[in-house]
Amino acid sequence: MPISKGSQVFPRAEYLRRLAAVKEKMTQRNVDAIVVTEHAHITYLTGSTARSYNRRGLVVLARQEQPTFILRWMDVPAAFQETFLDRDKVVGYSDEFMLDPSKDGYDAVIDFLLDAGLAKDGIGLEIGNLTADAVEKFKGRLPESRIVNFSDVITSIRTIKSDLELAVMREAAAITDAGILRAAEVISPGMREPDAIAEIVGTLVRGANGKAGTWIAAPFLCASPRIGTAHVTWSDDVLRQGSQINLEIAGVRHGYTVPICRTYSIGKPSDRLLRIHDAQLAGLEAGLSLVRAGAIIGDVAQAIHRATERLGFKKRSRPGYGIGIDWTERTLSLQEGNLSVLKPNMTFHMHLGSWVEDDFGYVISESIRVTESGVETLTKAPRQLFVL
């Protein structure tokens, strides 16, 4: 019996619209096929969110409506269920490619390209997502092909979200907010960090408003004395009276990831913590006030930095980046000097994390959408320093 497509998130027409935008880029670069290998891009073009630890590729041909998904045989059923692709557009390769050290899944992709008569055509590769040996494999087995670097081309298309995507991101944002509020409920002196994170992650899985979290993006819980760190997870330590906790989490729906940061203090916060909260909150609000279609990204970043500096804290890192599938979108960076223009339905994590010294830092952030006239704040948890 054929597997139903009960997990498909968007209608077929949405994926075909995205593929049409990719094919337009292919025409501009004069390539006949591209091999998509980045997980987020495969999700964007097909709906597949299943994780595979074997090499695979989505082959988009300019002359065919649907791409062909080439992956290990055991991952084929997930592709049948999650994607809009017809069954003949999902090709599984055998474990023979796993046994021979000189072969892997990319050989199956290259075999497909050769069988399709593309040995002498222009072929796009996401070189930035491939290992050096993989790039050499494609070049070595396709010596007459014109290899074109297609890195970040699909990312640039993804930066403008459709209404359907935004609806899913709002669902993810509600899950994110629920995780922040659950943290405020459970964090207490005497609690082990892993027990606190288990409660928070449990909420991110259970979801909000009847919508479950569909993946766990790595949560970062940086508690005293590690509050000068940015990207560490929980430890075996016990939370104590006077502990500070910097938390960064994200709700996830069908690959779409909406992050947020908040800081918690068990007991009365120090004067220094109160001052940096005021400074970073001022920076966040200054940035939000300038966001609108047509604004220059670098101007927004500059306003954020100047607001925090007026209150005595210099933020050394950029104050944000684009978000969507799998947390970050590399082509959007919210930082001074970026002359790119904000466009409607771009989405960002405006991140006012500031790590002042090795043993001191603070975090607050919002996930946002750019509108014609201003900003939509996707995350809606209280914009406060939580004192517990």
Task: Give a quick precis of the structure.
This protein is an alpha+beta fold and 388 residues long.
Radius of gyration: 23 Å
Number of domains: 2
Q: How much beta, percentage-wise?
A: 15-25%
Indicate the CATH architecture of the largest domain. Answer: Alpha-Beta Complex
| Apparent shape | globular
Distance between the ends = 55 Å
Biggest sheet character: 6 strands, mixed
CATH topology of the largest domain: Creatine Amidinohydrolase
The number of strands is: 17
Q: Which CATH top level class of the largest domain fits?
A: Alpha Beta
Number of helices: 11
Q: Calculate the mean pLDDT score and round it.
A: 96
Helix content: 25-40%
Low-pLDDT stretches are: none
Question: Could you name the CATH homologous superfamily of the largest domain?
Answer: Creatinase/methionine aminopeptidase superfamily
Relevant terms:
Creatine Amidinohydrolase, Chain A, domain 1, Creatine Amidinohydrolase, 6-stranded mixed sheet, 5-stranded antiparallel sheet, 17 strands, 35% helix, 21% strand
Could you characterize what this model shows?
The chain has two domains: 12-157, Creatine Amidinohydrolase, Chain A, domain 1 (3-Layer(aba) Sandwich), CATH 3.40.350; 163-387, Creatinase/methionine aminopeptidase superfamily (Creatine Amidinohydrolase), CATH 3.90.230. The chain has 388 residues and is of the alpha+beta class. The strands form four sheets. The chain has a six-stranded mixed beta sheet, with helices on both faces. A five-stranded antiparallel beta sheet has the order 11-10-12-15-16. Strands 7-8-9-17 form a four-stranded mixed beta sheet. The mean pLDDT is 96. It has eleven helices and 17 strands. It is globular and about 70 Å long. The protein starts with 11 loop residues before the first helix and ends with a strand. Helix 8 (163-186) runs antiparallel to helix 9 and helix 10 (271-290) runs antiparallel to helix 11 (297-310). It has helices spanning 12-29, 39-46, 76-82, 96-99, 105-115, 132-141, 153-158, 163-186, 193-206, 271-290, 297-310; strands spanning 33-36, 57-61, 68-72, 90-93, 122-125, 146-149, 220-223, 244-253, 256-265, 320-322, 329-333, 347-351, 354-357, 360-362, 365-370, 375-377, 386-387.
